[in-house]
Amino acid sequence: MLKKANILSTDNFFKKIFIFGLAAAVWGGMNVSSASAQALDEIVVTAQKREESLQEVAAAVSAYSSDFLEERQISSISGLEKYTPNLRITNAPNNGTAAQVAIRGGVTINPAITWETTVGMYLNGVYIGKTQGGIFDVADVERMEVLRGPQGTLYGRNTLAGAINVVTKKPSDESGISAEIGIGNYNRKHTKLNLDIGQTGKLRTKISAYMLDRDGVVESTGPSGDLEDKDQVSALAAFSYDITDNVVIDYAYDYSNISQNPPYSQPVRVGAGNIFDPTSPLYAFGGAFFPLDQHVFANRQENVQLDGNASEKSKIKGHSVTIEAELDNAVFKSITGIREMEWSDILDLDGSPHFIAHTARFTDFESKSQEFQLVGSRGGINYVLGAYYYSDDAYTNNPQQYFGGGNSFDSQYGSETEAYAVYAQLDYPLTDQLTIKGGLRYTEEDKNIVRTNIALASSDPATIAACANTFPCTFIPAGTAASTEFDDVSPELAFEYAYSDDVNLYARFAKGFKSGGFNGEAGSILETTTPYEAEEVHSIEIGAKMRLMEDRLQLNTALFTNEHEDMQLSIFTAQGAAASNVRNAGQATISGLEIEALFMANERLMMRLSYGYLDAEYDEFLELGANVANNRALPHTPENTLGIGFDADLMSGANGSLKLNVDYSYVDDYFTYPYALVGVDAGGTNAFNTLVDSYGTVDAQLIWSDLPFGNDSLKLTFWGKNIGDEEYINNYIDFGPGFGGITLGYFGEPVTYGLTASMSW
């Protein structure tokens, strides 16, 4: 049976929290010197388009420094969910480079290139437009910021649930080199090099590279070899040039090339009474020739058999040019971005040695953006003014073959987007303690779709009847196209109250806007050419940001209620080709609580906590004209998420310094699809078939720094992830009764560990 984290009951859940915290505190008190504790460092973020202290931003923001990320082997957005309340970052099923990012229950499930994200992702201020290719390594990160809640005023479309900012390090005035090598289990090897050339005249230059290679964690006899391996290269070249004393131009080129095999699609269930159930009369029509039931297992499989190829490739090139000019009481900034992506996957989707479901996607994507900002102050008023342009062009070739190739489809789709926006935000102090903040953004956009879907062959009776037994059979002819327009006004209103020098309170109303569009995976002309509407969220949030105990305790809390309207949901049909329908199902209310705390117990022990709570329910869910809100699951909305940990300095002396970091993260069970809770929905599916059980994992690092090494010093890091080897599923695919009731499970990685050595000159 599948192992679960043993914290499903409330008693066990809080008992583990108490034991972990008590052990850390006692351990710290017994083994750490009693010297007076130092204050926590101030955290500076750019969440509001200007540099501000985290504690002064009237919104829920989490920020992570380069040291924090490097110690924990984090070089992409993946992994941040362990430390951020109400944030879930999960690999899309079948993929290691496509992300399902959820904040406060807002999520885009389907990674198709025609879908828009619910959480906006930005690299050096440039928008990353799609979930395909959303997980990639960045060679030299300065910090990452997670903004929770709608960010429609300053960030615009597709930040309905929030935004994630990744900021890379700029070139330094001084020259320097840092290098890192590492080894680990599964034959892991990685190298990292940062070369700061320093300043030559008015030019500063920096080059960084990161390479990672690892064997797969699932051994396969298939033609492509082991699954879930890693073969990644990323690089960053940054140049900074002082045009004048007040004008600086920064150029950054980021590159990522990933070529690896995807996660294993493990069959964990087949439908009772269907073609893969050996007790069913229907077994003769499917299972007798393709006995998938013999390859269904509930526990993680480490040795598997596949008959088809499996691969995943993601190549990304990004250019950003930022011109910053300091004016009287203001800064003008121009941000220009160009991003190109070639992405593909080839999947043996059924996870067995039988030719049941083989699919592929070959995607080309390009986006361009231009933003102008004016950030300044006048007469006590702080302001941000901006104008924004964005365009993208995407196309996917999606060939599909089923049941020995007797059912095959030529499926292709592409989309184009062009969007314009203007925005403004003002902060006005009403008193010495009370400040009012107001913002507004106006957006216009044009979208179009082009689609082809042709059945090349089929043994499915419904498909044969629809095609009058004549193949190739055109369901959606090449050149089928449609276009539409959207516009939106996104306001924000906030009140900030400085209760004291150490306590800031705020209340915030904000609107988020997720663009509508067309369904590239539709199975009919009508479904293709009928647009779905934009999704909106209206959010009310109150919060407190506190620095207490002489700045040794930082405690930030937020309470919120999000009202979603025209929620976009993708319903997988598995009829004929792997088609889906998109619906604006209705309305939902998601409320919650977030707590983040950092506590410097003494100068050698820092403890951290992040906790998120969600109360999510539909207010309206229309299906076939009926409101079924009380019988539908809200996906990716775990009730509780928790992260607790500590950083402890164990010793410091002539032989260097020794530090131990331990982090425990827990997530409640959550649904992965908006299916029926009781019985089955119109597609014959039930949400509990794809319920992710709660689980908890522990990561740790033992860091020996300033270790004498010749005339220099060396840093050694022993690290481990999921060191308890917790066995858990974090995502599913439910094919539904139209495809034999196949359910595929995607397991989280087993325990991984390694050693890195790094030096700086």
List the helices and strands and how they pair.
Elements: H1 10-31, E1 44-45, E2 52-53, E3 60-65, H2 66-71, E4 87-91, E5 99-103, E6 106-107, E7 119-123, E8 126-128, E9 141-148, E10 162-168, E11 176-184, E12 188-200, E13 203-214, E14 219-220, E15 230-242, E16 247-260, E17 266-269, E18 303-304, E19 311-327, E20 330-348, E21 357-378, E22 381-397, E23 400-402, E24 407-429, E25 434-457, H3 461-466, E26 473-498, E27 503-514, H4 525-529, E28 535-548, E29 553-572, E30 580-602, E31 605-623, E32 626-627, E33 640-653, E34 656-667, E35 670-671, E36 691-692, E37 695-709, E38 712-721, E39 729-734, E40 743-747, E41 752-760
Parallel strand pairs: 7-10, 14-18
Antiparallel strand pairs: 1-2, 3-9, 4-5, 5-6, 7-8, 9-10, 11-12, 11-41, 12-13, 13-15, 15-16, 16-19, 17-40, 19-20, 20-21, 21-22, 21-23, 22-24, 23-24, 24-25, 25-26, 26-27, 27-28, 28-29, 29-30, 30-31, 31-32, 31-33, 33-34, 34-37, 35-36, 37-38, 38-41, 39-40
